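Re: Re: token formats

Sure, here are both.
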Amino acid sequence: MDSKNLNVVRHPLIQNKLTYLREKQTDNQDFRLILEELTTLMVYEITRNYPLKEKAIETPLEKTTSKTLATKIALVPILRAGVGMLEGVLNLLPKARVGHIGLYRNEETLKPVEYYKKLPQPLEEFQIIVVDPMLATGGTARAGVELVKEEGGQNVQFLCLVAAPEGIENFSEKHPNVPIYTAAVDERLDEKGYIHPGLGDAGDRLFGT
């Protein structure tokens, strides 16, 4: 899969946890825990090039200067499965603002349908991380990032755990300058828009529906 904005994170710990996430016998409780842990590990990669600034501090021994993040961060999960990744990001970025975008995929047309949107403002001041566990057809992610841009978002990253080639192509066609971070690029989509081998319906496995 050749896409300039695609970043596949192949760290051994990430690949190990992804295996357990995929397994059919992983129950809802373990699925939620592993999804959170996996997301936390992915955060290291997506924040690799975030800018730093100097901060004057005082240690128990003396005054000095040290480094701190120089950008405000907004986390935007796409409902409902994206919520399962929320704590995984906040574990490392606890001061991040959190917005929500409600989109669901029409099972007949496979097109995204918007039903909710609430985002931090002014959005152009933030580094924005849009999260959803799966990048399948790409329609939901594409629409979610478009909503963020319409609200003024300029610096956007998209974080998922599993992606299909078709979804990557669809997303990149609309948002070629938005980096995609994923733990795996799977083989294909089926006629219903499910990723193969995939990990099933992430929302259903998160919430037991």
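Second one below.
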Amino acid sequence: MESFVYKLAIGLPGFLLAIVAHEAAHAYVAKRFGDDTAEKAGRLNLNPIVHFDLIGTVILPLIGAAFGGVMFGWAKPVPINPTRFKNVKYGIFWVSFAGPLANLLLTIVSALIFSFMYTQVEANFFFYKPFTEMLRQSILINIILATFNLIPFPPLDGSKMVSAMLDYEAAQKYEDLQRFSLLFIIIIWTTPIISYIIAPAILAGNGIVNLLITMMS
């Protein structure tokens, strides 16, 4: 139980910020393209409560923490009305990319703070270990969320980015693959496929951290 509570404590801040920023970014960019549906629904903010999803925000991350893994999950998707975009294709592409992009930016910010603490703060500082562990978790969680959501299979963000570049008929056929989304997710999470997808991104993230540490040393 003590291990579970510790894992939860160091993973929860990064996890909540990652999933909330992901959805808030979708809402912000949608507004920039002319659709304020998410804003009117109260979703253009960083309050975790308004983005709450029972399975994605509570059950799955708790399971991840209980088994000693990374807290993985999602927030409730923000409502988007593409017909209100000033430019539909560009709007769909950038609104879809906004979520993973927010996670990539959080990865960089977390890596910067971690590298600063690692090189500039004494290891005997009382909160050194929990802070650095939180930042490590934040880096890992954001990398995984960004990479996973960029997979071009419906209904993930990557698929919407692809469909925005297709003509109407091709996009409809492509989005029909969403019928197999549950099967697809089960397959990639229960086979080594997910490792082949995410491992290179984690290696890249570690490379960024090592580079920042070298620059700050």
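DSSP finds nine helices and no strands in the chain. The chain has a mean pLDDT of 93.
- S.
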